[in-house]
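Example 3.2
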Amino acid sequence: MPGEGIELLATRTPAPHGPYRAGTLVVLLRLNWFIRLRWMFVAAALAVLGFERLTAPDPQRPAQLLAVIVGVAAVNLLWIAVARRLAAVGQSGDDALRGGQVFANAQVAIDLLLLTAILHFTGGVENPMAVFYVFHVAIAGLLLEPWQAVLQSCWSVALYAAVAVAELNGWLAHHAFLPQAGTLGLYRDPEYALLVAALVGCVVCGTLYFTLRIARLLEHHDTQLRGTHAALERSRRALEDLQQRRARFMQTATHQLKSPLAIAQTLANLVRDGIVTDPAGIRTTCEKIVRRCQEGIAQVTELLTLARVQDIDPRRPPGTNVDVAQTVVDLCRHFAPLAEQKRIELTHWTPAESELRVDIDRQDLWDCIGNLIENAIKYTPEGGRVRVSVTEKKVEGRPVSVGIHVSDTGIGLDPRLLRSEGRTLGEEPAFEPFRRGLNVLAAGIPGTGLGLTIVREVVEQAGGRIWVMSRPGAGSSFTITLPISGTALPGLSVRDTRAAEVVLEEANPQ
């Protein structure tokens, strides 16, 4: 059927995700818009010629006019063949869009040439149907690149001016617009010919200007709509991800809380049922019960902290403005006794005379950095080192983000926690609740497995990022970056659970 080639070309082109013009062009190609318009014109022109022949004994239309109309139909068939050829090549993506623009440019240019020929055989500058130049220019302005539309406009004005000059000088024979009424002879008036040509040029240029302005506004709104759609799609995926994470979290949390309680109950039953009767055994059993209870309390405390940092309305602005450097200094002083107990060298460095403040709840920042420092001390053997530092990133001399670096010389992360087959960035097992490496379990180091989960939640809420580098047996290095207060983009009230890009790298052994 007519236009089938263009249909094939459009179906092989992916759904438009680029600029408004490219997307609109693909849609019009898919609808066979250009082909159908030409068939409608050919049918209307032949109907008018047939009506004139039936109503007037001698319509005096030149035979060349019928030849041009037949030429329009022939060119239309040629475009269908070209479209089928392009579809057979199998272009896609940007190549297909560029091919579509070239295809549309060729059609508009040839259409303008054929329109000029039809105007010449139907009255030339005396024919008021020169308005169809404006129609083609409007199409070019909406569908083609601006520079292409300008070229098409210049081409149309040049063609019309050429007909006016040629008929004025007698280089082309003049044909009346209405043969029965004869010609008015205006085409022989230089002032009229100049005026009409200038008027057509002004109308074409004005139409092009307003069309390009409209196209620019449409592109702007199209970009906004695409951005909104992308944000909604991310939010949808984030909600699905959040539901899955919460379901897994509830199952794991129930199991983790049940284990110490079940063990404590079993040990208590040993004392109650008189199985353990000697004072030393009772004391040992009670100490085990206390440890299990302490483990349960620690897990409940971590769960409450995690619930607090997760239960934050992203539309609500942060209530506090915190100095990161001072928080790091306070945390290092807080954990200094623990480091001294394990004979670990805990040092910190912050920029001198630089106040780096972030919009975040102070307790959230304390829990975030505190978990990193506590983990570094916990997983570093005696005699090791833990370094904490604060840096700033500047753009054009103005700080835009603050980085907190915590590195240690501990046992390092289990490589299986850094990468997991089938997962993407931000889904690493290291940040899942209750996930602990086999090397940690083998070393018998106590913990809940919630620390890094809390770190991720706080960083994501603040719109930051996380980097991790670790080598088993040689230590780990965590870096989080947070935007400086006042540098966050306005209007971004919706954050999904993967807003922060979590980058994990496993260092190669030296």
